[in-house]
Structure formats: structure tokens, C-alpha cells
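Exercise: predict the fold of this chain.
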Amino acid sequence: MREERRGHRSTVLLAAMAVVFTLALVIYPKVGYEAGMQGLKVCWEIIIPSLLPFFIVSELLLGLGVVRGFGVLLEPLMQPLFSVPGVGAFALSMGLAAGYPMDAVITARFRQTKQCTRIEGERLLAFTNTADPLFMFGAVAVGMFKSPALGALFAVAHYISSFLVGVTFKLWGRRDPDHLREVKDREEVRPKGNLFARAYREMLVAREEDGRAFGKLLGNAVSESVQTILMISGFIVFFAVVIEILEVSGIMAVIGWPLMEIYRLFGIHTGLVQPTLAGVLELDIGSAQTAAVPAPLIQKLALVSGIIAWSGLSVHAQVASVLTQTDIRMRPYFLARFLHAALAALLTVLLYGMGVGRSSQGAMASLAHHLPVMSSAFEQNGFWPTFAHAMSNSVVWWAAIFAALVALSFGALLIRRIRVIAFFVRSHG
């Protein structure tokens, strides 16, 4: 009975919001039209050219069985770190390349084809929902802040915090009975033997299970990808209009009053209230508005980093639409986005205080400058003086930290394997 009443209240609230929004479009037709055209321009010039090829390629790789073979190879890495199957690395890599909601599209396909459990799908969405590097380096750092060096700051904070979220969500749903049963069934039918031979066999099996001729597979990939990209474009246009209507009607100012008091209490520039609310709804608009506010730079950087990690309700709605054909829940996704936003903002403040992003030159240019001269410097000055000089550059320093994290991950995996072998020898000795 309580759930039914709650559903009735939600229906009434949503209906009221829809009516109010419709009336607002009637009252402000020009504003709605211009905002819609701006959203369509973003979709036509950025979203469709950048995402559509990735969608088509991912569908082809799934149908050809490449993803399942790829997952077998990366199972020893993804399982100990994040407690997800090896195919999760494909969702992670495609999310890094194309940005959100690419990860949600691939994760939904994994769940539909039974390549992951519901819990594993929720874990995947927790840390694969990332922005692509081109957006952070190009659109945000160069386009909004006019500083290429800030791209490294945003990227390092974004991806390290995403990694931390993934490690944290490793424990999510670990005692769920359905998850444990599905994992057990999967382990029982998993083939044994050489890793590369297993990957090859699994790729062939996945291709046979799909069964579609390549022409039909390509046609389905294009049609399904176009349908997905139209859905994403529709959400972008809708939220662009919503934000503009809220600002023109003054509703945004009313909603932002409590947040303004909180910002005053903690000494945060009150001009960031409006961009914060816009960023909650749509990350591109919120980031652009934040960069234009005459507030302290460190506050703007932290807010933009948090907005990128949060990714906006527009992206959340896109993810929810993609997941409607699966049993993956949105609640863990929301929790992960809150955690990701908080960690990204905190890391941005810490990294900027340590010098990342302050260089007048771009981070990648600085790194490219240092790498070619390393070998000659080693010959002239010796290893340790050259190493100390290289580490004095913040970009090289954080690149070394990232490499160390990767090395530690592989080291932990190796130690785990050695312990398993030692236990097996003792038990059969």
C-alpha cells in the first residue's frame, strides 16, 4: 500500500512538472526555440560525428565475438581489481575513447547477452562512466579556460577518482544470492587451458552463438546505433531547453537560494551557484558557465571537475533509457556519481596545489619535451641526477605515479597467483 501511494504521488508530481513545462514553452516560445536549435547544433556538430562510429564498431565487435575473447585475456586484471569480468575492460576502454554514455550502452549489451551479472553491471557503470580526454583537454581546458595545461589536471583527477570509485564498488552486492549463483554457473562452464587458446575458442563460440551473416550484423549495428544516437540527441535538446526556461523564468534563482547560503557559509563565491545548478542538469552548460564566472580559479576548477564526474542529469537520463531493457538498477549509479564528483573535486584541489596544471605550456607538450632528451641526459649526467630533474616537472611526476599504480596492480595480481599456487602445492604435497 505504501509503495502504491508513493507511486501515485510520483505520478502527480511528474504530471504537474510536465504541465508547467508545457506552459513555460507557450509563454517563452522564442527562448525554447533558440535553446533547442543550440542543442541540435551541438548534436549535429559534436555528438553524432564523435559517438556514432564508436557505437557501430562496438556492435560489430560484440557480434563477431572479439569482445568475449578480449575479456578472457583481461580477466586476470579486471577480476582482482574491480570484481568484474574481463569484458569490462572493453566497456572501460570504449568509455575512455568516446565518453559517456558509451559505457552504459556496452554494459547493457553485456547484461542482455549474459556476459555479466546484474551486480557486475552495476559495478561496471560505477567506474566506466568517464568523460573522453578530447572533451577535457579540448572543450574544457582550451575552449573554456584558455589554458591547455589544465587538461592534464582535469584528466588526472577524473581518471584517478574513477579508479578509486571502481575499487570501492568492488564490494557492492558481493552477497547478492542471484549474483553468486550466476557467477558459480559461469565458473563451472568456463574452459580451462592456455589463456590465449581460451580467448580464441571463446571468440569462435560467441560468433557461432550470434549466428548473423556479416551483412545483417552490419545493418543491425547501423540501425541500432542510429536509434541510440537519436535518443541521446533528444535528451540533449530537451535539457538545453529546460535549463534555458528555468533561467529565464527565475525558477533557477529560487532553487539556488539555499545553495547560495551554503556557499556563503563556506566562503565559496556565490556567482558559482547558477553554474552549479546548470551543471547538475547538463555538464557542458554548467562547465561553460563556471569558466565565465569571475571567481577564484581554484574554486572554478574544483567545481568543473566535480561537474564532469557527476556528468549531469541529461547523461543520467540517457543511461536510464539505455538500461530499460535490463535489470541493472540506477541507485548504485547515482551513488557512484556522487562519490566520483566529490573525489574528483578534492583531487583537483590537491593536484593544483602540488603544481599540476600551472605550467604555461600544455601538459602533453611538456611530457613530449622531456621524453626525447632523457636518454642523452642519462649518458651525460648519470641516472639519479637526470631522474631527479625529470621528477621536478609535475607532469612527468604524475605520469610516474600512474605507471607505479599500474605496476602495483600487476604486482598484486602476481602475488595473488603465487599464493594460489603455493596453497595448491601445500594441499597436494
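Check your answer against the key: The chain has one domain: 33-178+194-357.
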